[in-house]
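Last lecture ended with a question: if I hand you only a sequence, what can you say about the shape of the protein? Today we answer it with a concrete record. The protein is Ribosomal RNA small subunit methyltransferase I. Below, first the input exactly as provided, then the predicted structure, then a couple of comments.
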Amino acid sequence: MQLYITGTPLGNLEDMTYRAVETLKTVDIILCEDTRTTRKLTTHFGIDTPLRAYHDFNKEEAEDRIIEEMHDGRTFALVSDAGMPVISDPGFELVARMQDEGLEYVVIPSASAFTMALVASGIPSYEFTYFGFLPKTGGKRKKKLKEIMAHELTSVLYESPHKIKDTVAMIRDVDENRMVSISREITKKFEQHVRRPAAEMLDLLGVDIPLKGEFVIVIEGAEAEAVHFDIPVAEHVEALIKEGLTPKQAIKKVAGARELKKQDVYDEFHETKK
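The predicted structure:
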């Protein structure tokens, strides 16, 4: 194998697996987001493998060198600062490049914060959508969250401590009774999971829920009959297309949900495309 996509602990080092430790000891180079963070992990487990930075700001130029060295027989482990690599972190580009070039890789598992938060949320988890981080700018953030709030399935997203109150406030503004679970400091000393309606959750932030650590938000799905009804028909169709439906499927679904004729929905949707 040329690459071991290696999961590491979210916070508690006792969650490190024997297989992960052995892998990091035997590869030639460990690729990591922040060498300072990974150094703490490798020092704790007596791992002296060289570290090399691989992150959003250098990944394109770094990949050429990595691929070249793999062809020469060098082996690598890819880690993130915590949890599973590639999830909301760089890495899928490298995996795709390796597939194209016939290079071998394997995944060594660990927990991801979003799966643990979902398990601990008390919100239906049979079907869910993971959205990662919201866009950074205000307009795009609100648009994306509005789309998420119209989603029929349970939604999971990450948020930073300085934006968590703003995000929950936006959730409340859309539906103050929507059930929300917030998880923070997962696997660490002050791990916390709280489930409340959005309006109550906002009151707890900064009081019973400290604004420290990384947050995971789990949002109950919208009721089917209420989905998208607060937006125009054309936007309703567009939102369903973004969720993976074809235009024909989306038009049919919108027509059924709103008790409209399919031709009327079709005409209104395509009028906005002119």
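Comments.
1. The chain has a mean pLDDT of 92.
2. Residues 113-223 form a domain with the Methyltransferase, Cobalt-precorrin-4 Transmethylase; Domain 2 fold (CATH 3.30.950.10).
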